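## tool: complex_structure
## caller: assistant
## args:
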Amino acid sequence: MSVYSFFIFDRHTECIYSRRWVDKHLNASNRPNSSALGHGDVPATAKKAMKDRDDVRSPALLPTNPPHDRSFPDSAANFIAIIVVQAKLIFGTLFSLRRMVRQLGGSEDQFLSYRTGEYKLHYFETPTQLKFVMLTDTRVGNMRTVLYQIWATLYVEYVVKSPLSPTEHPGGLGVANELFEGGLERFIESIFGVPQTTQ
Amino acid sequence: MVVFALLIINKAGGLVYNRTFAPGLQKLDSNDYLILAGTFHGIHAISRTISPAPRAPHPPGTRPPPTTGIETMDAGRFRLTCFQTPTGVKFLLFTSPEQPNAEAIIRRCYEMYGEMVMKNPFYSLEMPVRVEKFDRVLGGYLVRPG
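## result:
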């Protein structure tokens, strides 16, 4: 059992939090190994700054990536861009599936998860239209309660109740605080057993 | 345990067959089914590109094994099982969430399609399926007696 990534989307279709975990079977040398990405979550404001910084760093990273290997990006900046694009694609997929489910199952029906041959996507939506999404491998069972727990015990406690975080989170402002990130990390670890390395 | 409906989508995303076997899903008109088929075709393609899983190792110089798109989708009131044939035709089976062996059912539908539609000399490819025998046999297989 392993978890690949986790996203939160707000009601304005924006990705306000994302986090990725490296699968343990992956050899580290194949991945862009940037310390700038060590925080896991990349708020949009930080993304730009990191992008600028990584552009400078990228020549040093290039030799570690074989140029013919197209499955991995050339530099960390590229890598972040890919995450952003992926978040958008995931949101688009969810949006369409959610609409499809409502159309077929009635307005109270909700989309729960889908599975492909490679991964499984779990979905949970709060009454305020916050969307919690988790991508795991296919052997994982229902994660809806886990997503609910993340919302109820971590997001509400550490993000909503934080006096420093704004009501809305444009660009992920105020979501990625220490308590929330630490709590999420420990919670995922407790479910998936072995410590997952953050990417 | 009910099979609600079967949709067949051709490789271009067009709906070629659409049949409801049991009530349970909302009634949609044929236009909505066409839109639904096209939308699903797109989502299926996107779901292949957003795979976060590491690629399976393959010998150098060969193509990586193709990624599959959505195979099953769970909703509160139904489950959608999708089977894509090697030629790109998609079979979508809507069942109740607790229906077992949806994969086997969908394979059987594919066999029937192969036997009665593809072997029919009057069927033109990529066009809506209007084969009486296919309708009859499929109905006999999926409509519950009583």
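## assistant note: The longest helix of chain A spans residues 76-105. Chain A has one domain: 3-198. Handing back to user.
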